Amino acid sequence: MPYMKHDKVEIYYEFMNRGRKKNLVLVNGVGSPIGYWLDLPTKLSQHFNVLVYDNRGIGKSSKPLFGYSVQKMENDLNALINYLSLDSYSILGVSLGGMIAQHHLILREQKKIDKVVLASTHAGILSVKMPSFKNGLMLLLVTNKILGDMRIKDVLNFLSGSDLEKNDPILFQQLLKSRKTETEHNYLSFQGHVKAGSFYMGEDLSNIKTPIFIIHGRNDKLVPYENAYALKKRLKKSPVKMKIYENAGHLVLWESKEVFEDILSFLNSNHTVEEIFKKVS
After folding, report:
1. Residue 108: which of 25, 50, 29, 198 has the closest Cα?
2. Can you give the pTM of this predicted structure?
3. Considering the domain 3-280 in this protein, what is its CATH number?
4. What is the 3-state secondary structure (H, E, C) of 139-164?
5. pLDDT tens-digit profile of 23-40?
6. How far is it, in rounded angstroms, from Cα 161 to Cα 244?
């Protein structure tokens, strides 16, 4: 199995190198292993060379007791990109992965980062729109369950904005299985992921010029959709398009039937930035 040794940890990765002209790196969120992407990497590999990996603390990667922060996990990402000698690439970052992608942009924009998709994420705690009090309490209960007796079903129901278990039971079961079949979370590493996202301070994105596509579900109970507007406001020089998807929550990448084609149009187009954004609007 492919591993990269770095900073006293081993990062597990899978690189679908299909000989395409463009590379795409997928960065997942809290407690989400490679399998959680389901068939998205395979579908994307029809257009790009796709790199997926397990963040430290999850899946097949090392689970150190300490060392969890957006900065540490971005360092893992950068080391992996260097290890595979990716000269140019785009990034799709989801939730905590979106924060890692933002930090990567600040430190590495001088590299050839073509485009970035930020899904279900926020711009840092100084500008974050918090969940409602009711949803905050629900999140605490759900988190306690997943750490206590692995009731991942409750987590997925909380993250869904469209009653996914009822409306698309097949997809729901696929997501459920993808979490249950992976190596169990180390309690401290899972909490490390949660704290990394909860205490992310945000970046000064005002001088970033990379094209960005911000994606959010209208019914996101974990990271309310207003955070998409706050994130867009910080990107003063970057060409930015934002799309809010109705009847979708934190799982917007899986719940929305439109999102894959929108991402593909954004990443795979050779047109001007203005034409790209017009196409996905």
Report:
1. 25
2. 0.91
3. 3.40.50.1820
4. HHHHHHHHHHHCCHHHHHHHHCCCCH
5. 999 999 988 899 999 999
6. 12
